[in-house]
Fold MerR family transcriptional regulator.
Amino acid sequence: MNDRAPTALTMFTIAAVERDTRLGKDTLRVWERRYGFPRPLRDDNGERLYPHEQVEQLRHIRRLLDAGWRPGRIVGLPLEELQRVGQLSGGETAAAAEPALKAEPKALYELLRAHDVAGLRRALMQTLLRRGLAHFIGEVAQPLLVEIGEAWSRGQLEVFEEHLCSEAIETVLRTAIATAPEMRADGTPRVLLTTFPGELHGLGLLMAEALFTLEGASCMNLGCQTPMPDIVAAARAHRADIVALGFSMVSPAGASLDHLAELRARLPQPVELWAGTPQAAMQRRGVEGVLMLPTLGEIHQGIGRWHARAGTTRQSDDRHSND
């Protein structure tokens, strides 16, 4: 059997697949061994190359994982079956998606469908300035991203349109963080944000940073995929009070919990370890000494409890709402 790539023009490297699907390289390799999918070809140097059809399958798999499906039930299914499962899993929600979307995210969604990128960016920023950062994230950005994902699954949006919206939201969030009023040099808590290798939950991490900043925290965002020794070193250098890690539905629950337990053991005891995860399995099993946050909205309460334990005062400003 010839497993060499016929032409590089129709193939994707593992790095390109990772960027496109937000499925980590390690996850792809594990699935390859465990489920026999994906089935990459090899170039002359033995490097993995993925056909377009398999990348399309992986995109749908990612969507279903985000919707709560387990990898063992969907990885390796034909594209047509994945599409059918996606339609069934959407059910009544998919049929009523647009009417159920509130006015603000719905208007933004229509700008995206009209390919009015400049208008989308302008409207995102205006919504943020008018309604405040917490409202923008919880009531606008997150519902909009969910709807876009569902619309893509229904074949109503292209991948590039999803990427455009994510980039626009990221730009607005970075601007909000950069222009936030500076806190005191001794502002607390000091929060280090990142993900473990293989987890590409970058936009979620940025949303968390914005909400921590809103609470008056001093943040250092390392971005995604930081090796554990570097997390420990950065926590010491930043004199972190809290190390906050983000996880997605794709993160393998067992391995993620093991890594959290190891990191907890390697961090100084006074440093708190928080894990943001939508996975019920991770929330249910938990790790001793690790605070599990099911939603970004838990950050506000978590910071309040931290200040109560530390005997300090919250330094948040009035950007929770501009109503």
Remarks:
- Residues 91-99, 317-321 have pLDDT under 50 and may be disordered.
- The first strand starts at residue 11 and ends at 13.
- The longest helix spans residues 133-153.
- The chain is about 55% helix and 10% strand.
